[in-house]
Amino acid sequence: MSIALDDLEAVARKYIQESPLNRVPALDGMRIFEAPLLAAAGAADPLFEGLKAAEAVGAHHLSPRQWLEGARTVIVYFLPFTGRVREANRPLGLPATEWLYGRIEGEQMNCSLSERLVQYLTACGYQAVAPGRDERFAVRDRRSNWSERHVAFIAGLGTFSLSRSLITRSGSAGRIGSVVTDLELPPTQRAYEALDEYCSRCGACIVRCPPLAIDEQGKDNAICGAYLDRVLARYRPRYGCGKCQTGVPCESKIPVTARRAGAAGE
């Protein structure tokens, strides 16, 4: 059965629209995510091997064909948070309740969507695996063996911000998921070259970061992680922050920059 990326996007959109996991009963049925963005990368793209470099992710990062023998395509999606989730988290200070639900219940929705795409591809006669849901998925020193953000960059979904979030045409406030498959799809063209091409380096995320983990050089993951641990201790079983993704120019679009005047999302 022939499948195009548009077919997969239609499946994802329908699932996001209809799944009860995209609603929070405790918050008056609040929707967590808006319609997803999808992109595709060739499994043989040399940038995947580049992620094994120490300055990227590390030697422990697995390539698409280590996740699935015979892999041809990596499908990546971005789930933008709804306006309600984003707006609630704009005030400085502790994370909003809406954001905490978006981070934890939203990740359950994210995982469920990746499983739905795997089921759809399998039903169509293809092999597929969602690395984030695979038993081989592991995190070492806060670095996983499959970085959704880096994979999304390779697939053409967006570039990194100063806070190390991914800036897409729907902004940076959201979640990322991916599926590796032996279905062959045309790679999405990357509309950028530099890792941070969509970032204006305005510094807005620096002053919004509660633990001061961000400076002009980037984000200190250890400081950020320690703060999230404290948030978890306070709000268990939920945690999150997201202040660097909300109340900033890249919250819901690609900000206008001197390097890319008139970029998508202006």
Automatic annotation (TrEMBL):
Q: InterPro entries from the xrefs?
A: 4Fe4S_Fe-S-bd, 4Fe4S_Fe_S_CS
Q: Which UniProt keywords apply?
A: Iron, Iron-sulfur, Metal-binding
Where is the 4Fe-4S ferredoxin-type domain positioned along the sequence?
Answer: 190-219
Give one GO molecular function term: metal ion binding
Designated name of the protein:
4Fe-4S ferredoxin-type domain-containing protein
